[in-house]
Amino acid sequence: MDLRRLRTVLAIMEHGSLSRAAERLGIAQPALGAQLRHLEEELGVPLLLRHSRGVTPTEAGRALRDGAWPLLEGLDALAARIRDLGNTPCGRVVVGVTPSTGNLLAAPLLRATTQDLPGVALSFVEALSTALIDQVAEGAVDLAVCYDMPADRRGVRGETLARDWLVFVETHEAGRIAGRAEIPFAEAAAVPLVMSALGNEVLRQMIEGSARAAGLDLIVAHEVQSMGLTRALLSDPGLGAILPYGALIDDIRAGRLVAARLVRPVVGRRLCLVHSDRRPLNRAELALRGALLQLMAAPEGEGWEAPPGQDAI
């Protein structure tokens, strides 16, 4: 079956008449009619019914249209992919980040892209991991940096980028972890904590599960639903919080808050790069993946393979 002829007949179906299709395609109407006749002769069935208002597809025409469009779209995507392999990375890429990974990664990734990948335009989407994975599966997000992707999630593929450690955070004035890179979980559990108010929130479940496994009882002083409230409550030296390192990174860098990695047991998550399993990564997406891996491996990188603090190992 000739692909150009097939596209022409589908265009006639889309526009509803030979005259409108001829005008849009810039092809003489007799030539379009000839293409239609050739395809009908090849398939042995009429594909269009002519009437005073134009044309409508027959049952065979509808079956051809419904079956051909996905195939043609797939061929177009494949052609674009092959052309892309020979070109400089370019195009728009939608990158999903969680609030904590966005705090650590968005700005350096944007700087690296601007410097090394001038043809690539980044667009960021911020959401929790489960929502980001759904958006990747739906095609709304191209790449997502999120946590602990389920192994049985259909429609997406993921790879582990690094480990992300949970840390105990408090105001600098509290003095409990000043100068320390680590704090035993038992010591952190003895401090009244600011915790997420969402009982089914994945991070809180992980913290409470790790505490139970270690035989520890957490002291939950306040339950909140925003990082702004958490920051405000942590101005009280009597309180602490267990969070991803990037959640309050600006306050940690400014010295308003200090952080130390939880140990005995260490509590951490896999940081994953997630993309659709329905198509290969294009050149721009592959280039961004490489930039992300470089950021993770950089000696000045914060909060990933090494714990935060002066004695990070």
Automatic annotation (TrEMBL):
Domain HTH lysR-type stretches: 1-58
Keyword Transcription: yes
Keyword Zinc: no
Alphabetic keyword roster: Activator, DNA-binding, Transcription, Transcription regulation
Xref: Pfam families: HTH_1, LysR_substrate
Cleaved signal peptide residues: none
Domain of life per record: Bacteria
Family: Belongs to the LysR transcriptional regulatory family.
Protein name in UniProt: LysR family transcriptional regulator
